[in-house]
Amino acid sequence: MGKGIFAAVAVMLALLIGSSVYADPEKGSRSFEVPTTPEEQQIKEKIDQANNEFRQKVLDDIKKSFSLQGSDFKEARSELLNDQNFKEFRWVYMEVVKNQEEGDIMPVLYYNQNQAYILEKKSDGTNVMYTLKKDSSEWVIADKKVSPGAQIEHPLSDQS
Question: Minimal CA–CA distance to 100: which of 68, 131, 130, 55?
Answer without folding.
Answer: 130
